[in-house]
Here is the input.
Amino acid sequence: MPKAYWIAHVDVTDPAAYEDYRAANAEAFAKYGATFLVRGGQQTVREGQQRSRSVVIEFKDLATATACYDSPEYQRAKSFRDPASTGDLVIIEGYDA
Here is the structure.
């Protein structure tokens, strides 16, 4: 069964408030076994447009990645994120050769 990923591109508009989101999301990510592969960091846009921050989070499978997003724990964290940032997030199944 292939792993799954959240891929997010974010512009943080209120860094202090965004810290509340980061603190709150830890509960959901621990519960669903999330692993950060990319969390901010230096990036270079080579084609197209990009937001200022990129995040890639790994989950054991697509069902777990989706359940984490839909969970009450993450939705509570998201309520802190929404007013503090603008972004795009996809949940995608990995390639299992």
Remarks:
- The first strand starts at residue 4 and ends at 12.
- The helical segments are 15-31, 62-70, 72-81.
- The beta strands are 4-12, 35-39, 53-59, 85-93.
